[in-house]
Amino acid sequence: MALVLGPILAAILLGALVGSVVVWGRAHPASFDRFAAPALRATWRRWTVYRGRRWAQLMSDTGLTKEHRHTGDQLVPRVLRVRSSSASIDTVYVRMVRGQDVAYWQERSSVLWEALIAHRVAITRHRPGVVAIVIEWELPFTRTIPAPDIPETTEDVDLGAVEIGDNERGEPFTAPVIGGHRLVAGASGSGKGSVLWSTLRGVGPCIRDGIVRVWMVDLKGGVETEQGAPLFHRYATSMPAALELLTEFRDAMRDRQDDMRDQNIRACTPSTGTPVELLVIDEMAMLTAYGDRTSVRDALRLLAEVMTQGRASLFAVHGYLQEPSKDVVDVRELFTQRICLGVTAASHVDMVLGEGARERGALADEIPGDARHAGIGFVIDKGFRLPVRFRAAFVSDDEITELVTRCTPPPDADVIDLDTERGAA
């Protein structure tokens, strides 16, 4: 450019470009972080970290190079692309040397981790011959995420992407309420309540207007959910009442399926006539493992029927539990979306997120169990099969009260506490 335009004009244009970038970053940081910053960071890091002699030395030191069998030349894995979604996360796509596979790289991930002086490294197969290396340079969550605002109207709610918190890239972390079932696993104090209440805040107007109806089962006596009881269409805090609720939930699904069949409808659209029926089970193990054998068997049968048939008719199950083993949740494989918060055993990670998730970087068992790290967890990105870390927003008692005040269904709505009704009977 200097040869064509001359050094003075080239310097002026370059200065104007740099100045424009600086002004953009200061004047509108949100759009800058979304559009410009990732490309600038990726370019800078590719030239300073993932290129040339420094990259070759890193590969050699970590045992990821290979000597050519005929010429004796050192073959170095080649960086194809660098993505830098946030200030703390890089994804580097690398073409492996012939004779290597993803397992070979994963065996050396801890060595690479230490050589880079990074906080975390996760490696997975991107396509034949290419691995994706996720490098987390530092912890992305240094503060508590504030509770998401309650949308004003039902038109502001996207039931396919309800905001729960932030992901490690600094973007909103969203999860669907329709189209499947959600399993949330985490040790006591890991922040399961943050996921539960953030979800309910995100669909608050739909609860108020009858487009979403919440069926709540809390076999811990309702200690953690009683405050939100006015929001619930049905509410059970004992095993007999829970079985009654599950039976009614299953029967409602069958009735809607009959209506769909009569009207030749393949899939329902959320409305007051066909609301999303959301069954939330807090501490699911009390229902599926720790009750008496007959009750547990009945509960599992009802859950399996709903979870295998309820998607098209807008019947969804959200289960929250501490122990994710098959013995505790026999219907674990029926959950289509899984969230793993801090857990107490490495084996729990793969139980929740799928085989190999921990090897790919979902180190949920290493999340500290104190309040400062509550709400931090992992989900699996469906496109790349890589773990994505997120932090659920903290919802205080005052914010639950706000939700109840603003989004309780009208008094004539059919809201029933099944335990109270059984006691009166």
Describe this structure in words.
By secondary structure, the chain is α/β, with parallel strands linked by helices. It contains 14 helices and 17 strands. It has an 11-stranded mixed sheet with strand order 8-7-16-15-14-9-13-12-10-11-17. Helix 2 packs across helix 3 and helix 9 (239-263) runs parallel beside helix 11. The longest helix has 25 residues, at 239-263.
Radius of gyration from the alpha-carbon trace, in angstroms: 26 Å
pLDDT averaged over residues: 88
Low-confidence stretches: none
What is the molecular shape?
globular
Instruction: Tell me the quaternary state.
Output: single chain
Q: Kindly, what is the distance between the CA atoms of the first and last residues, rounded to a whole number of angstroms?
A: 87 Å
Strand content: 15-25%
Count, helices: 14
The largest β sheet comes out as: 11 strands, mixed
Strand tally is 17
Structural class computed from helices and strand pairing: alpha/beta
User: Biggest sheet, strands in spatial order?
Assistant: 8-7-16-15-14-9-13-12-10-11-17
Question: Which percent bin holds the helix content?
Answer: 25-40%
Organism: Pseudonocardia spirodelae
Pfam family, one: FtsK_SpoIIIE
InterPro entries: FtsK/SpoIIIE/SftA, FtsK_dom, P-loop_NTPase
Domain FtsK: 170-350
